[in-house]
Amino acid sequence: MEAGLSWTDERVALLRRLWEDGQSASKIAAQLGGVTRNAVIGKVHRLGLAGRAKPGEEAQSVSRAARAPAPVAEIETAIAVVEAEAPEPVAIVAHRPAPAFPPPPSPAAPTALAVSQRVTIMDLRDSMCRWPLGDPTTPDFRFCGARSITGLPYCTHHAEIAYQPATERKRERRVAGFR
DNA sequence: CCCTGATTCGC
DNA sequence: GCGAATCAGG
Questions:
Q1: Which bases of chain C are under 7 A from a protein CB atom?
Q2: 3-state class of A145 per DSSP?
């Protein structure tokens, strides 16, 4: 199913923008979706984008590129800058800092231990519960994020749901579905 | 342990 | 061309 995502022009343009914006490969991968940070890094190298401008170096690739004949890499850099300056409806989404999903104001939600943190894939750590919350195809998709049981991918709460004994499972009609 | 980019190499 | 595995480093 989720096919169709590859290095389309749009995705490459977005990759360029974010990379030269200083975003890390993993963050870019998360925003692009469907690719790992390795894929991003690999692509970056294939595009000749490796090595980003450091604080102390020239940040005037445009004028420099416009002044004299330049290597392919520099031309590509110039193109990327132009693309970055032009309004780009398709990629603008990437600049939105946070998904701004309603964190329950809940004054009265003193649930037991640290329960659901609702984290995005970006904030999901190895030791965090990977129980999915919501529709993976929408931006509001999150993972539980609570502390997971050592050796298991879920927190105590979700592990109970995930690992119900066959017998119990029958009775416990889908108790707490995917919410 | 968390993370970073770089490189290799089978596909 | 692609990207997982791996490497090297913070």
A1: 1-6
A2: coil
Q: Closest nucleotide (CA of A19 to C1')?
A: B5
Q: Specify the nucleotide whose C1' lies closest to residue A45 (CA).
A: B6
Question: What distance in Å separates the CA atoms of residue A37 and residue A114, rounded to the nearest whole number?
Answer: 30
- Asked whether the predicted pLDDT for residue A14 surpasses 70, the reply is yes
User: Is the CB of residue A133 less than 8 Å from the CB of residue A142?
Assistant: yes
Helix (H) or strand (E) holding A132: strand A132-133
CA atoms within 13 A on the CB side of A100: 4
Q: How do strand A132-133 and strand A142-143 relate by DSSP bridges?
A: antiparallel
pTM of the entire structure? Answer: 0.46
Query: Would you kindly state where each structural domain of chain A is located, as residue ranges?
Result: 9-95, 104-179
How far apart are the C-alpha atoms of A65 and A74, rounded to whole Å?
Answer: 6
Q: CB–CB of A22/A52 below 8 Å?
A: yes
Predicted confidence band at A70 (pLDDT cuts at 50, 70, 90)?
very low
| CB-contacts to strand C (7 A) | A 6-7, 35-36, 38-39, 41-43, 46
